[in-house]
Design brief:
By secondary structure, the protein is α/β, with parallel strands linked by helices. It has a single domain, classed as Rossmann fold (3-Layer(aba) Sandwich), CATH 3.40.50. The protein is built from six helices and seven strands; from the N terminus they run E-E-H-E-E-H-E-H-E-H-E-H-H.
Length: about 240
């Protein structure tokens, strides 16, 4: 299997807790969202070919920040807070949910949303709320059904077919695939989708290399100032006031 290419040069840029703290609009960004414990951080690390690009926590429910990673040339990867973790107090989940919901609606640079779901527990109520809310933008969604190594291939394919059918009822531009961070399966398929969103298809096919790192970009070896862990807005619909 070919090594990850598209996000390999991702470098941590900043963390934001409020919409007014967002970086200036760029040429394009892809946001990753998912329930806590769905494997979002592991998927991001696999796609970036780096063990700790996104911190993998055994204790979900901590990070309440939107984390930006620079891809070069005005492009970004955006890691949204995990959602749906019941142990996070309601007082925290409510503004947190609004942050995610408002971000996906107002961010003009956002080209599409990658939604991470555990293949054994896909399309939960929280996932449906996010997909329904995001549908207002008319932008595409690609679902990564992570931990596919936990199922037999036959069971995985049946789950994928069911999820695709459910997504098609929400929007014709919502797609899905199987993905395994452990087995490194599904990387190439995911990269093709995300490259098309960013307009990098030709670059990915011809050179296998994303845009060059801009001067002064933060290196992966430097300390990441963002908080650790994943968490989520809970049962409230993202964006609800």
């Amino acid at each position: 299997m070919s090594a990850p290419k598209l996000f390999r040069q991702a470098r941590f840029e900043t963390s934001v807790a409020k919409l007014e703290m967002l970086p200036p609009e760029g040429l394009g960004e892809i946001a990753f969202a998912g329930r806590s414990n769905a494997g979002k951080s592991s998927a991001l690390n696999t796609l970036a070919d780096h063990k700790r690009l996104a911190f993998v926590s055994k204790t979900p429910g901590r990070t309440q920040l939107i984390n930006y990673f620079d891809l070069g040339n005005g492009l970004h990867l955006v890691d949204l807070p995990g959602y749906g973790y019941a142990k996070v107090p309601v007082a925290i989940r409510a503004p947190w949910g609004r942050l995610i919901g408002d971000y996906v609606l107002v961010r003009q640079s956002l080209k599409g949303l990658a939604v991470i779901m555990d293949v054994r527990h896909p399309m939960t109520d929280h996932d449906y709320r996010l997909l329904d809310w995001f549908g207002q933008t008319g932008k595409p969604v690609h679902v990564l059904l992570t931990k596919s190594d936990k199922l037999t291939r036959a069971d995985g394919m049946r789950t994928l077919a069911t999820v695709k059918q459910q997504l098609s009822k929400l929007s014709p531009i919502y797609t899905a695939q199987l993905f395994s961070s452990l087995k490194k399966n599904g990387i190439e398929d995911a990269e093709k989708v995300f490259a098309s969103w960013l307009g990098l298809e030709a670059l990915l096919e011809e050179t296998g290399t994303p845009p060059a790192k801009p001067p002064g970009a933060t290196t992966l070896g430097k300390k990441n100032p963002r908080a650790k862990g994943e968490n989520g807005p809970g049962s409230k619909r993202p964006g609800s006031k």
